[in-house]
Amino acid sequence: MKLFDTHTHLDFACFDEDREAVLARFQSIGGERILLAGVSHSQWAIAAELCQRHAKLCMSVGFHPHFLEPQDPVAVADIEATSASDAISRGILRLSNLDANQLQCQLAEALELYADYVVAVGECGLDKMVQTPMAEQLRVLEAQLAFAMQVQLPVILHCRGAHNELLQCISQRGVHSGVIHAFSGSVELAQEYIRRGFKIGVGGTISYARAAKTRRAIAQLPLTELLLETDSPDMPHEGFQGQRNEPYHCGNTIRQLAVLRDEDEETIAQQLWQNAISLFEK
């Protein structure tokens, strides 16, 4: 059994003390590949350094809607004293100060620097649970979608409470390759994404009995349209609430899928591995 955790944040500081042990635990269950999903300019270099040290890791570059505004912006005079790239990496420049071309230049620069490791654009998307206005989220998302089309990379999409807007956006932009991360919804909603060329990310959500709609959807969708993911350190499985999630729990997702779909674990794992390789391997 070979497993590809297609969405983690192992570059986050909460893994600094025991990252090697986390990787070893994943390897012990057949873990072969891990994708570090990009969320902000400041994290890309950290992810790239980890990819350089570990052959099993790959990464994406993107601006997550949760990270569109840094915590402590400084005066315009301080921003003007440095380059946009440095200002973003130091958390002193709001993305709202950059137009679409400038945003895409940041992505292009990262793609050039980390070409050996980058396999996707994202994590990007729309989220109605954050304070950033939807118009601003859409502007940043559209810049990333256009970049992904330009460089022909798949897109990792995040969405909370904005599926109508997201579906409309990807349709208008003609984007047709990627994954809807941490899917939670009906089979009809999943089919709308699949019809547009997107895979469905499956993780800890299906371990909860209360997620009946999502569990029914995942049971009915073609296995060829699913991807394995954890969103580590977030989205813990049932029974592990309040604990840090990690790629090791991919094993439980495979077991949950086998029960929901009445299919063999090895068959499921093999197909999900192939799905991920087809989408993310250059």
Structure description:
- 44% of the residues lie in helices and 16% in strands.
- It has 11 helices and 8 strands.
- The protein has helices at residues 19-28, 41-53, 76-80, 84-89, 100-113, 134-151, 163-173, 187-195, 212-220, 250-261, 265-280, and strands at 3-8, 31-36, 57-61, 118-127, 155-160, 178-180, 198-202, 226-228.
- It has an 8-stranded parallel sheet, with helices on both faces.
- Helix 5 (100-113) packs across helix 6 (134-151).
Write the layout of secondary structure elements.
Blueprint: E1 3-8, H1 19-28, E2 31-36, H2 41-53, E3 57-61, H3 76-80, H4 84-89, H5 100-113, E4 118-127, H6 134-151, E5 155-160, H7 163-173, E6 178-180, H8 187-195, E7 198-202, H9 212-220, E8 226-228, H10 250-261, H11 265-280
Parallel strand pairs: 1-2, 2-3, 3-4, 4-5, 5-6, 6-7, 7-8
Question: What structural category characterises the helix and strand content?
Answer: alpha/beta
N- and C-termini, Cα separation: 22 Å
Low-pLDDT windows of residues: 70-85, 87-93
* Helix and strand run: EHEHEHHHEHEHEHEHEHH
In one word, what is the shape? globular
Number of strands: 8
- Rg, rounded, reads 18 Å
Percent of residues in helices? 40-55%
Largest sheet: 8 strands, parallel
Give the DSSP E fraction (strand runs of 2 or more residues).
15-25%
Average of pLDDT: 91
Q: What is the number of helical segments per DSSP (H or I, 4+ residues)?
A: 11
What is the spatial order of strands in the main beta sheet?
1-2-3-4-5-6-7-8
Task: Summarize, please.
The chain is an alpha/beta fold and 282 residues long.
